[in-house]
Structures are given as C-alpha cells and as structure tokens.
Amino acid sequence: MIQDWDQFLLPYKQTVDELKVKLRGVRQEYLNQNQRSPIEFVTGRVKPVDSIQEKMQRRHVSEERIEQDMQDIAGLRIMCQFVEDIYEVVDILRRRSDMTILEERDYIHNEKPSGYRSYHIVIEYPVQLVTGEKKILAEIQVRTLAMNFWATIEHSLNYKYQGAFPETLSRRLQRAAEAAFKLDEEMSEIREEILEAQPSMATQLRGPNDS
Ligand code: 0O2
To answer: Where is the segment annotated Disordered (predicted)?
Structure first.
C-alpha cells in the first residue's frame, strides 16, 4: 500500500518542475537568437491521486507495477503554432541527452476515434534524490494551439458526461476536431506562402509578450 502519496509523488513533481524549466529554456534560446521558436508555451502537472487511482483500477495496474506501467503521472504539454513545429520539437527532444525516449505515439496522423490529435512521447528522466538517482517515466504531449483548444474543451465535457457522450455530441466533437485540423492545415499553407514571399517574416512570427 502506498501510505504517503505526497512522498511517493515527490520525484514526479521534481521531474515536472525540472522539465518545465528545461523546455521553456529551449523557447528562450530561440528568442534570444531572434528566431521564431517552435515552442509556443509549456505546461506541466502531476496527475492528481484520484485520477491515478481511477486509472489503476481501469487498467488493472497494481501498486507494485505503478512506476513501470503508469506512464503519465508526470505530464508535460508543449504547445506549438504550426503542425510542422510539432515534428521539429520531437526532433529536438530526440537529440537531448538528459532524457531517453521509450515510446512515441503519433495521434496526429492516427487520430483517436474521439477526434483527439497530439504527438505523445514517453520518456525516462533521471532525477537526483538525496538517496541517489531515480528514473521517472513522464509523458510529453506535443500539440498545436488548435489541437489544445479542442482537447481542453472535450476533456472538460468528458468530465461532465463521465466519458459517456450522447451520440450527437460525439459526432459534433468529431466534426469540431476535423475543423480544428483544417484550421491547422490552412495556417500552415498561409505560413508557407508568407515565408516564400518574405523570408524575414520568420523572425517576426513571435508571441506578443516575448522580449
Ligand atoms: P489528463 O491528465 O487529465 O489529461 P488512456 O489514458 O487509457 O486514455 P494511454 O494509452 O494510457 O490512454 O495514454 P495515451 O492515449 O497516450 O494518453 C492519455 C492522455 O492523452 C490522456 O490523459 C489525455 O491527456 C490525452 N488524451 C487521450 N485521448 C484523449 C481524448 O480523446 N480526448 C482528450 N481531451 N484527451 C485525450 P488522461 O488520463 O485523460 O488524463
């Protein structure tokens, strides 16, 4: 039995905190060089204990197997402006030596039946504890702003309907997901045209609050 969840989750919190700093640092590196960053913003969370317990029941994961079988207790999200940026971010992550990629799931080209799209990466990340090094699994979700918009709303509706959407709502959400993806495709085409016409725009496509 996990007696003290706060204690158990401490290395996961450290993982999320460290990765948030590092991934935001990637964005800052681009901006400092006056370049457009493929990372728009980064969020992270440790999965709440009730969600962990619910998933353990649903997936038949025992407490002995939790560290190996629950890949998303530590979760990071990287938001990008364009679909192309997602694959650039994935390449950046593949080149890093401070984490090991264990698994990649492309839910962009293989969207989920719900309409969900994102690129998922499961990594092993070493945290340094007083007792020594501990390897922690973390899930990094990389998605566009449009994919994030859809997923955030669908997630909150899911909470309300406990996953049992009425058929009409499911269909509308699938249509909305397609519309969001169409928007991503349109934006990519517009971006290509702008860049071809005016290469200097690359540095100008930056966020409003960036110095
Ligand atoms: P949270 O933290 O509240 O977002 P499973 O968890 O069983 O669905 P699996 O194989 O463990 O699936 O992992 P998968 O599919 O790679 O990633 C699960 C996570 O992806 C979910 O976490 C969501 O964040 C996101 N996700 C997957 N499918 C959907 C979807 O249809 N809609 C939305 N909005 N998000 C999705 P959790 O566990 O839901 O928790």
So the answer is: 197-211
What are the residue ranges spanned by the domains of the chain? Answer: 5-204
Model-level ipTM above the cut of 0.95: no
**Residue 77 beta carbon below 6 angstroms from any ligand 1 atom:** no
Name the residue with the closest Cα to ligand 1, atom 8. Answer: 55
Q: Is 20 in the pocket of ligand 1 (CB under 6 A)?
A: no
The beta-strand segments (E) located in the chain are 41-46, 74-80, 100-106, 119-129, 132-144
| CB-ligand 1 contact for 115 (6 Å cutoff) | no
Cα(24) to centroid of ligand 1, in Å? 23
User: Which entry of 111, 139, 154, 193 is annotated as an active-site residue?
Assistant: 139
Phi, psi of 56 (to 5 degrees): -60, -40
Exposure b/e, 139-162, CB count within 10 A at least 16 = b? bbbbbbbbbbebbeebeeeeeeee
The finding on whether 85 has its CB within 6 A of some atom of ligand 1 is no
84 is catalytic: no
- Average pLDDT over the chain reads 93
How many angstroms separate the CA atoms of 120 and 103, rounded? 8
Average pLDDT over residues 11-19: 98
Query: What average pLDDT score do residues 51-79 get?
Result: 96
Please, what is the angle between helix 83-95 and helix 167-197, to 10°?
80
Instruction: Return the CATH class of domain 5-204.
Output: alpha beta
93: three-class secondary structure by DSSP = helix
Q: Rounded to 5 degrees, what angle do the CA atoms 173, 153, 137 make?
A: 110
